[in-house]
Design a protein that fits this description.
A hairpin with a 2-residue loop joins strand 1 and strand 2. The chain folds into two domains: about 80 residues, Beta-grasp domain (Ubiquitin-like (UB roll), Roll); about 60 residues, [2Fe-2S]-binding domain (DNA polymerase, domain 1). By secondary structure, the chain is α+β, with helices and mostly antiparallel strands. The longest helix is centred in the last third of the chain and has 14 residues. Strands 2-1-5-3-4 form a five-stranded mixed β-sheet, with helices on both faces. It contains five helices and five strands, in the order E-E-H-E-E-E-H-H-H-H. It binds FE2/S2 (inorganic) cluster (2 copies). The site of one FE2/S2 (inorganic) cluster has 12 residues, from loops.
């Protein structure tokens, strides 16, 4: 008896408050689903191997590296990408990144923001050490990290 492998599956995912239903290859990564199928290119790909954190999104409120998650694993879930952080105005966290010069090329920034936003959700006024732990899975090649840590701590204190 032969079995036919499942190659395409229908997934229904709420992304930034909008529900999408798409047929996807069973092996499609969530990051490719977001970028290529939904055109949400704010989520970046830095490595595709789970190392850099540029692809970080929230899956049911938990930060995940979307290159390490299959689109089918997000079926029925709620995903927030960097585009979903704010509709028009910058959030206090985004404003703090701007005010503290916490980005240069900006490639890591979407992932940094998503990891930091998840931290602030859990710990509204994090210490420097708590910020460093929360961002340890996010690599930045430009800033030296200090301004990013400062920006998140300041956002937690309600300052910019
Ligand atoms: Fe996902 Fe680097 S692209 S961790
Ligand atoms: Fe360039 Fe972080 S600002 S990688």
């Amino acid at each position: 008896m032969s079995t036919t492998p499942v190659t395409e599956m229908v997934v229904t995912v709420a992304v930034n408050g909008t529900t999408y239903e798409r047929e996807v290859p069973a092996r499609r990564l969530l990051v490719h689903f977001l970028r290529d199928d939904l055109d949400l290119t704010g989520t970046h790909i830095g490595c595709d191997t789970g190392s850099c954190g540029a692809c970080t999104v929230h899956l049911n409120g938990v930060p995940v590296k979307s290159c390490a998650v299959l689109a089918v694993q997000a079926d029925g879930a709620a995903v927030t990408t960097v585009e979903g952080l704010s509709e028009e105005e910058l959030t206090p966290l985004q404003q703090s990144f701007s005010d503290h010069h916490a980005l240069q090329c900006g490639y890591c920034t979407p992932g940094m923001l998503m990891s930091a936003a998840a931290l602030l959700e859990e710990t509204p006024s994090p210490t420097e050490d708590e910020v460093k732990v929360a961002l340890q899975g996010n690599i930045c090649r430009c800033t030296g990290y200090w301004n990013i840590v400062e920006a998140v701590v300041a956002a937690g204190k309600g300052g910019a």
